[in-house]
Prior knowledge:
This protein has 38 helices and twelve strands. By secondary structure, it is α/β, with parallel strands linked by helices. Strands 7-6-5-8-9-11-10-12 form an eight-stranded mixed β-sheet, with helices on both faces. Strands 1-2-3-4 form a four-stranded antiparallel β-sheet, with helices on both faces. Helix 25 links the parallel strand 8 (600-605) and strand 9 (631-642). The longest helix is centred in the first third of the chain and has 34 residues, at 108-141. The mean pLDDT is 89.
Amino acid sequence: MRIAVLAFFFVSGLCGLLYEVAWIRTAGTVIGVTTYAIGTVVGVYMGGLALGAWIGGRAADRRAGGALLRLYGLLEGGVALSALAVPLFLRASEPLFRVLWNSVGDIAPLYASLRVLLVGLILVVPTTLMGATLPVLARFLSTSLENAARMTGLAYAVNTFGGVAGTLAAGFWLVPDLGLQKTTLIAAALNLAIGGASLLLARRNRGGPQPASVIEPPPPRLPLVVAALSGFTALAYEVAWTRSLVLAIGATVTAFTMILAAFILGLALGSAVTSIVTPRLKNLPRALAWIQFLVGAAALLLLPFLGDLPLSFAPRMGALRQDPSALLWTEFGLISIFVLVPAALLGAVFPIAIRLASGSEGSIGRAVGAVYTWNTAGSIVGTLLASFALVPNVGLSATIKIAATVNLLVAAFLLRPKGILALPLAAAVVCWFLPAWNPKVMASGAFLYGTSNVRDAKRQNVDLRAWLDKDTELVAQYWDSHGLVTIHRQEDGVVTMRVNGKTDASTGPSDRIDMYFVGLLPLLHHPDPKRALLIGLGGGVTLNAMEHFSTLEHIDCVEISSAVVKGANHFKHEIPVIHPRVNLIIGDGRNAILFGRDPYDVIVSQPSHLWISGMATLFTRDFFEEASRRLAPRGIFCQWVHAKWLPAGDFRQVLRTFFDVFPHGSLWEVFPGSDYVLLGSRDPIACRVADLDERIARTHALEEYVGAGAGLVGHLVTDVHGVLISTPGETLITDDRCSIEYTAPRSLGQETRREVLDWLDGVRDGAVERSMYPDADGLSARKRQARRYLARAVALHADGGHQKAFHTLASVKNDLFLDPRTRIFIDGMAQDLLYFAATRIESGDSRAATNVLLLVPRESRHFEEAQRILQQLLAPGPR
């Protein structure tokens, strides 16, 4: 029977993590995906567990045998039924959250407190029922005081192993393939099944320890305090380790899933092993002290290696990107090195604390409930304090040092009657003399730029650390609950902003055209835009472009990261971001759409890349539906989407989802195979090329990049009908089933441009400009044809066909507007040709070198160099 009960508890742990993942994602669509919103759900979830453990411990000691199993079965059934109601209550609470957003949204403490209260009311029942299950089962499994710690530790370990299974199942199968609703239904069905099975077993069981006949004294405070401090450090470590690791391996949903799974697995292993050896330990306080010492020592010993992890990870990226399964196992191995051992030591605390807290057989349930409650309370403080105070203010390494210092001080306190307390005290002091992490290394984006950084370092004949130190000047760094934002200045004066290692804004010509295009394209197509909403600040380039559009009277800009807002101040000298017409809001873009009141003429959404965890919520059909309702008559919604490193199937899925909501609109190409812009509206977008000419001439919007209206039309790929015809049967991205967040990271760093551009070549309708712009003439058609040939050249270049790419461009170069982005592409191809010519010359094949050099166009900045080499090759005399 014990095996059956433990199996039930394994499934219960699995269900608990399925619920947590589903509730966080469901709540995110209502209260946002900021770390404050997620922290609200996690904090309330853990608070409910603590409350349930406290209540369940007292209820367990009043029952015995079959009555305990019956109570456990009822608890599991109650979890299932109340969990099914959570999504319904979250949706029903939208009007209340809307009132809070519009009334006290700018008073952060009050808004956060009321949000916690509302979410707490929704989650309190299922989480309290979950928390009560451990002390009830512990009381049932413990036949004596001597085996209480062993059985409770074993039950906790089994439940936690179930949590590992739930984490992996949710992250790699259920949520991406089945969606949130079905995942919740599966978890509820499992809860009902084990609840029913428990009730059946209860009928057969009439034995077991009898309930206490007298009131037992409360458990001693020492094990409770140690459990609380262990919970605090465990979650502080978990937050710091997670944010440190994603700087090296990328902030993908896969990475977060593996880190959480490794952390929970460590807790389970530690609890399982310690539950076996606890009865043999003669001095439990000393054992607890040494565990605390080892936790702190392990965290500190791993600290320097964690800070240098990007240096170790970068050289492997080139090979690993070609084998996704090898990459996954390598990442999990690296995660395990830093997380598994310290987490296992933290898991070892629980069984020992249970044994110290148990006064008699009649108080086992109360002791288990008390330890679990204090441990969970400490965990809540740890996750909130680390996420919102420690990491934003002192950084990652200091947060780990603080947590380690707490462990070491607890060890010293427990060892205080002995002379060896000096060891943990000395370690606590020494840890603060460990060298600080190199911010350039941490912000190097090894997961994304590791291969190129290693290649550049080899060319300079220096090691990777030295290359990163000299590559750019680190202007500033900012931490917030979303991670690390760094500002860099290159030798040519270009300023870049990196968010968790990925470049998200730049004053360089390539990034500038993307940011200008996404902000100005919808404004040029609206007859008279007055109010606009911009989701995503970045460096402020898009905001600056929109602010200078003469007809706009008001712009709301929503940015989720306060560190990004601070970083944008470094773009002021070149790109001012503070204007009287701008209202800057630090918050979630979906909240601004869902809870706002005023309609907008133009809404621009420019989130980061889809492979970053949380970004996909701004690409779902539900979000586009909400945005469409915020548009004024003739209003236009504009969505940026990347194609680089995105499979063609995922790209088509985004397009199909967008135009399933907006019946009128078009697809635009900023640069082939890289950045695309979607325009959508509920009303026909009536515009002429002459209107574009007039608006460009009056506002100078995009003039540097397209010239005039015909040049802008050249970037047009197709209209809404062309997309819908070309994407039959594509699965829509929804809040319930947002699989693209899981598939997009798999192609990160891989060459997908050829795949995307080949599909788009069949989508480009040669006559679509005439259907969209009644006065479109031959010039517009030639501009579109030139851009089509540019796309083919990019596709050829992606496959290494540099010579074919230049031949493709030769026939349309007179109609191709040479904007800065196109010039950079041509210069890059020309540089590749020079390199190829040099190899031909070295091999003695002058004729092949000559043919290649003749392809370098006059428009390239390498033209003169190519001509000089040609003259040397063609000059008479020996060579």
